[in-house]
Amino acid sequence: MSMGRYRMLIGDRWVDGTGDSWITVDDPATEEAVGRVPAGSAADVDLAVAAASGAFDGWRWTAAGERAALLQKAAAKSEEHAADLLELLTREQGKPRSEQEEELEYAVSCLRYYAELGRSRRGTVIPSGEPRTQLNLVLREPYGVVGAIVPWNYPLLLLSWKLAPALAAGNAVVVKPSEWAPLATVEWIRRCFDHFPPGVINVVTGDGSAGRALVAHPGVPLVAFTGSVETGRHIASVAAPMMKRLHLELGGKDAFVVAPDADPSTAADAVAYAALINAGQVCTSAERVYVPSGLHDEVVAALEARVSSLRLGHGLEEGVDMGPMMGEPFRGKVERHIAEAVDRGARVVTGGRRPRDRDRGWFYEPTVLIDVDHDMAIMRDETFGPAIPVMTYTAFSDAIALVNDSPMGLGATLRSTDPVLVKRFFEEVKVGTVWINDPLTDNDAGPFGGMKLSGGARELGEQALDEFSETKHVHWDLSDAPKDWWYPY
Ligand code: NAD
Q1: Each residue of 399-436: pLDDT tens digit?
Q2: Residue to substitute in 160, 161, 226, 231 for testing ligand 1 pocket (most ligand atoms within 8 angstroms of CB)
Q3: Would residue 110 show up in a list of annotated catalytic residues for this protein?
Q4: Host H or E run for residue 272
Q5: Same structural domain for residues 143 and 159?
Q6: Are residues 288 and 396 in the same domain?
Q7: What is the predicted pLDDT for the residue at 3?
């Protein structure tokens, strides 16, 4: 495949940027170049923010129905262009084609959801002190220019979760895709959002320095960011003195608890899926598995059978269950976590190495580890790769304590059909999303986000529309009569 050249969108023009610096994007399965994008600079960010600011006023006062129609059209175009977008996405990001299809379907569904919601949801009228002569309105109004900074693991999906509510709420947007996987995003905006008024959507490609310039720009009152805790901390430190609004979706260390009543074999299948989809590179990947001592051997045997049967390969090949990891630094972290755990006494049941039959690409065998504990990095820090550490517990209260023994609080899963355990679990775990029996399933109307270090933002649902708009209270006295509490007292 020849290497494509992709560009940035500033206002109504696709440009190479003001510098002469480019980022090459590789296929993680072959290490061959797929395309390149301009390495955007602070000057490019200035131009993009100026274009967005110029477009904001017109967009803000565009009828909600018209905004909805434009979002619906973007959804329809995304379906028309799906084949090309999915191939590009698979080449640059690596997950199997079926997982990419699901990503695009969810992104399209998100566009449609906010098209509908944006038409009908505005402010409220609240009771006034003098109901006959006064009106009190609570308005929601757009911020202006939203900076949307996205990671590489679900480039289109995570952008749709920001773009759709931000646009539906009347904001203009400057998008900064990840330098690891920006190509499908650029192509998606170019092909499927070209009917939006110029400047309403802008794209600045580049690495963290372009992201930093967007965060520091005084013309960007709201930064919506999905990425690591470390980057989130940096963004917060820059944004706080400027009193910017932050919408932060950060890392996770999600727990998966198998309850004593669960079927060990089905539980193992659910764990394998929750831990290994996208080669374990999901913010809500199951990264810690807790099983009752009595079920340990059965669950681990079923997990070993399932995990060792998975077929690794290029995401575009038929019959591939798991693709490569995104890049060398990410595989390196998984290897460090596993090596440290083994040093401290953990045992590898299956996997634990690079596949022998692949000399190119960032592949790593899906791995099951036992005899782990919370002193090991693999049970504390985000691994973000295909590793499944399994630990035993005795009482169900211990399992809940282990789930909560983490600085992160994104999601958690329980396998159980015992209503007493289920209720206790979802009430007591300190996370933003709880899955019972069906891990990692999103719902457009269901708020998604974390607690603790995972960041406090909520994407999706009505709440995200609120997060991309700010509140204004209007106290309106309809008469011109003077008030008896005015001077003189
Ligand atoms: P990352 O933090 O390295 O990068 C994310 C984005 O931020 C990229 O576009 C990057 O260029 C940009 N960036 C880097 N430094 C910046 C800075 N100083 N200022 C502004 N922008 C900067 O994360 P990643 O490796 O791309 O993604 C993986 C991480 O994302 C994991 O920690 C994962 O858990 C998290 N994640 C969270 C969610 C969620 O919804 N909570 C979803 C997906 C991924």
Answers
A1: 999 999 999 999 999 999 999 999 999 999 999 999 99
A2: 231
A3: no
A4: helix 264-276
A5: yes
A6: yes
A7: 79
From the candidates 92, 99, 249, 382, give the one annotated as an active-site residue. 249
pLDDT of 132 higher than 70: yes
Q: Do residue 128 and residue 192 come from a single domain? A: yes
Domain of residue 277: give its range: 254-436
Those residues with Cβ within 8 angstroms of residue 394's Cβ, 6 or more apart along the chain or in another chain: 292, 293
Pocket lining: 179 vs ligand 1, CB cutoff 6 Å: yes
Whether residues 224 and 265 share a domain: the answer is no
Single pTM value for the model: 0.97
232 and 294 co-located in one domain: no
Tally the domains of the chain: 2
Cβ(169)–Cβ(62) under 8 Å?
Answer: no
Catalytic: 249?
yes
Centre of ligand 1 to C-alpha 228, Å, is 5
State how far the alpha carbon of 70 is from the alpha carbons of 147, 164, 442, 466, in Å.
20, 11, 24, 20
- Nearest-CA residue for ligand 1 atom 16 is 208
Find, among 169, 157, 168, 162, the residue nearest to 147 by Cα.
162
Ligand 1 pocket residue status of 249, Cβ below 6 Å: yes
Q: Is the pLDDT assigned to residue 158 strictly greater than 60?
A: yes
Q: pLDDT tens digits, residue range 428-459?
A: 999 999 999 999 999 999 999 999 999 999 99
